[in-house]
């Protein structure tokens, strides 16, 4: 597990002046995210989960952020981006078509569905998608590069970095209302901010991170 | 603590009252008009252009109803400290984007709330360089405005006072201006690094003039440097239209209708606008009016004018010039990022606490237009967007880069793009939730735009190198604010409205938002939009006094 900010947990601040009630409610909803699909079918779900595992691999020593479920929620709840590229269909159709086409490409290249391929072969197919090199009838008129760039990447990575687990990994202060911050300059830290691991003083870093709440 | 009912479920401005944004659960009295009343003005949109005009008209004694398609938020109760949750502030209804450089819409440039995009803007409040009001004549590019910069200088001062702008005592560029009403904000680490880089390059910098108070003002407490400014201010330190001109408008007797989407302007047989059709609480309604002001910003304004076409006006209202929807301009918003040995923690404080406008005022360059750059503080979701879209990272490589978050530093430009009739808003065939045709937004960068961007990227990179940043990379693809699509001018053949924001074709139809900009300048547009709106309110009063409305 990544440990740049040892023992830092942004959730320790939940009842401090850094979190107001609307924030607690919003984050509670996110943490309680149901892990089953409402939009995707069984096959699509397996492919999507495999894609999420490669786009945003997660440590094995904690429960994973349910990235596929966030993608499903975005579609089910019709959370739109505010714009749609003329070459891409609406998000629900784009995902459905893109996952089917990726699976088709996996079978064609490796005689196996995408989700059962080893990680390096999965990565190879995703890189081809990123470079616009996958083709096949299932894509229709949707360019695979645009599907990768404007659906796969944002829908999965945004879900991850909106999650408190990710904030802990990168040392983000997280919610900050109404208290905000006091020490603004370079190399300045408020006592309610994360401390980066210091090899010489690891215990001290842990102790300070235990006190952000 | 009780949280108020869902702001999206039903209108809050109703039953003779509107939310008191400064008090949990509080209400403020609101005058209401009947749909049978012929009100003096309906204003479609309540953002940087609409709200000051609504307030100004009401204060001058006109009867006014302001419409907004979005909800009436109570920041103290509705706003979370969270990027994702606060996407509820954005205009996320479908729009189709195309062209060689399709625009990213949503949070970058479009709000759907009472107060408009100012509820989530970054508060950067800058004056145009005087020459930009006559850029064709004085600098040889773009188009001249029908406004005189000296008159605008007066309205900028009024807007800065109304919004309690916090800024430096002496501003380094342009003609003399009064000191800002509130003291400049303290710099954060990212802003310090911009300053060091500028000094190393021998160019000037300054604390950014910002619309968030550095000391108490009215019921607004000083900014606490939460850093979530672009996701709504939960303390009311930010001087958005929601907490400034909208309360003023209500006190002066204006009515605000939230969750009210205007879909069509009705034309009367006399060649004057007769009122607006709007969708509220599940059905279409009609408000009669003597004047209609469209203030929906550079996408929704032309969309409404085009959608209101009649047999007599088959190309849309106010469109005898053929320019409604054309000359759409965004601003280049490229950036350069790097990593520091020190901890920067750029998530603290307003995102753009320092600025250099050097290249807005230095004309020794081989392209037209200008740009500024500002310090940056992207929060995690925006930061991952930059990492993935600029560097194509994913997988473990992406995770490794994201871990450096607290050491990152960046500089981001706001650059002038030139007007081009091929960049435009039209109506697509797709239909939205109101049954209205959605906007198609077509955009391609020109050669001048690309040259300006490359110049800026080089300069910003030099600045980051000068402060010792490593692993420097460029974000080449970003754009932000909007302008154009209903430009003002002196000639009915080459503009949509005159200097008073009044349609050349239909005397009681007005446009009051960034759509009227003939050029977009190299600074954030909101203060100019607000200043023009304050001027328009004065001009309407003067015209009314002469019987010329």
Task: Explain this structure.
The complex is a heterodimer of chains A (213) and B (549). Chain A has 213 residues and is mainly α. Chain A has two domains: 10-18 and 173-209, no CATH class; 29-165, no CATH class. Chain A has eight helices and one strand; from the N terminus they run H-H-H-E-H-H-H-H-H. The mean pLDDT of chain A is 96. Helices cover 23% and strands 20% of the residues of chain B. In chain B, helix 1 links the parallel strand 3 (39-44) and strand 4 (64-67). Chain B is globular, with a radius of gyration of 22 Å. The termini of chain B are far apart. Chain B contains twelve helices and 22 strands. The interface between A and B is large, with 62 and 70 residues. Strand 1 of chain A pairs parallel with strand 5 of chain B.
CATH superfamily of chain B: FAD/NAD(P)-binding domain
- What's the assembly state of these chains? heterodimer
Strand percentage of chain A, roughly?
under 5%
> Largest chain interface and its two residue counts?
A-B, 62 and 70 residues
